[in-house]
Structures are given as structure tokens and as C-alpha cells.
Amino acid sequence: MSSIPRDPANDYTEASAQRRRLFIQQQTGQSLQHVGHYSQPIEELPGNVENFTGVAQIPIGFAGPLTLHGEHASGQFYVPMATSEGTLVASYSRGMRLTREAGGITTTVLDDAMQRAPVFRFADARKAQAFGRWVETHFEDIKRAAESTTSVGKLRNIEQYAVAKLRWLRFNFSTGDAAGQNMVTKATREACQWILSNNIDGLEHFALAANLDTDKKHSHLNTLHSRGKRVVAEATIPAEMLKHTLHISPQALFEQRQYSNMGAIVSGAVSNGAHFANGITALFIACGQDVANVAESASGFTYSEIKPNGDYYFSVTIPSLIVATYGGGTGLATARECLGALDCYGQGKALKFAEIVAATVLCGELSLAAAIVADEWVSSHDHYGRNRP
Prior knowledge:
alpha+beta, Alpha-Beta Plaits, ten-stranded mixed β-sheet, 40% helix
């Protein structure tokens, strides 16, 4: 097999991209005509992709308006959603209309931290224990070393986890408006280099990462302690509005929630929600997020009550929502436009964006549950999802 063509001097040019499209066509027989049509300035792509050849075009629809009463996001927002699934945007728009007419959604950011968790192996458990105490007494020195690599990241604390003669240090950083994985990796490495320079007694081995952070995968640890933003979105829907707008009762919706809770327990699911991933993925693609973070971000909890007056209280909690409004893919042309439409591009906007994502998830959960109860789930897909082979 031949190597994909590259230009060592300057690989981010239209000529290089064109050569690669022709190369792939020659190798596979498949034209890349549509892949080769884009408006993204190629010179902005270093650091985002290698062997740039073209773009994947995902349709974007706007849902809304979404009415929010958040700590950081307040007002009405039109939400960009990139998806190829018919019915999705319509369903989220329906949830947004219902919550808007009910007075809006309240959002709260409870926590915000990004982690890296190196592991240290010792001669025995007692030396590992002594190391843990040493880390506690030298926290300020470790913090100073970590923060020397970044003007944004701040080391909040270090959790410790012990198994046999192993000791994990779970570094927790605030990372401003960046998602921060690369930032905290560099900072943690610098901190660990300082630790290693102190000739720790009994230390046999060190690894910068050993799956306790837990990057790009769900974990119960992050559900409890959070990774990224921990966000709650909640709304109360008047009983009469449910009956008039969705033709269902609060009692029927609450009963369906109990079935869903039990189904999640029986199946061993990591979330009792219906489809957090749908809304999060659509927003992530539209707004230049690292889509692999959906693996962590899409696990969460729904909770509901029937209030004493008969109204329906509904909430979603996302414990590990990893989002950014600065750096990474957020500066790419279409992502910048979509974030800009939410007034969420740039510094000082990450918590606002997190609240919008959580509120959007709530609208999708509410709309899907109502469709199942009202027996409109299949008919709505038949109506909107008409792309048949």
C-alpha cells in the first residue's frame, strides 16, 4: 500500500488536500467530490487534524427558543443541533416549547473539575501509605509545580486511592473555558516530575495515567465526584398544560418514569435517562466539541415528582459534562458560528454553554417520555423520519 501524500514544509494547503483526495480516489475508486467542498480556512486547521482531506457534512437544524433561568445562561436561545436523525430537532423543539410556556428551565452548575490520575507502585503497602502522607504535607509544592505549566489551570486538590502497594493520585484542576484534558496532563506530569525528584522511599514505578481519571469512558467514580461540569436542569410543568399541550397527565408521565427507573436497574444501565446522548452529541458536533467526550457526558440521572398541587417537577443531572468554548475545535468556522449564535464563543462562556446543554437534554427527555406515554413515538418518526431506502 502507498503512503498518504504529505508536504513536510506546509501540509495545510488546498493543493495538499487536493492531492490526498485524488490519492484516495485512485486507491479506492471512490470520488470525494462532496468531501472536498468546504468553506473552512485550511490554514486554521493545524492542531485539529492531520492529513486534512476535506470535511464531513452533517445537517444542522436549530431548535427553540429555549428559555433559561441559569446562573450563567439567562434568556432565550436558539440551539444548533447537528444530526442525521429525523424527528430529533422537532422533538427537542417540542420540549423547549413546553418548558418555555411553563416559565422556563432553571440550571445550576454544582462543580467543575478536570482530572489526571497517575499511579505510583511501591515496595509494599506501608511505603505507599507513607507516600500518601508525604503528598498531603507537600501539597503546596506540588501545586506550584503543576501550575507552572499553565496560566489558566489551577490545582484544587489531590484525591488518593490505594490498592495493595499501588497509590493513585487523582489531580483535580479547574481549567477555565477549555475542556482541559491536555492542559491537566501537562500540569500533572510536571507535578509528578517534581515528586520524583525527591527520591521517594520505596518507589518502584510510576505511570502518568492508569485509567482512574477516567478519560473517554464512563465511570461510577466520575458520577460521584464529577469530571468536567456537574450541571442540574429543572422545570415544573403545570398539570393543565401537560393535558392541553401533550394530552397526557402528570400521573401517567410519573408512572412511565418509574418503569424507566426499574428498566435501568434491571439492565444494569449507567443512566436512568432515555437519550441524553442524542442532544449532547448533536450540540457537540455543531459546536466543535470533542465528540468522544459523549462517552462520559451522556451518563446522568433524571428525577421527577408530582407536586402537592398536581404539577409535574422534572430534572436532569449531568455529573460529567465536558465542554469548552475556547480552544480545541471551538475555533473552527462552523463551530464558531454555532457557539456565537448562543453567545458562547470565547473566554468566560463555558459554564453558560454547560447550562444550555443540560437544559437541552431536559427538553429531549421530557419530549420523548411524553411521546411514549401518548403513543406518538412511532407516528412522529414515520412523519419526520422519512428517509427510507
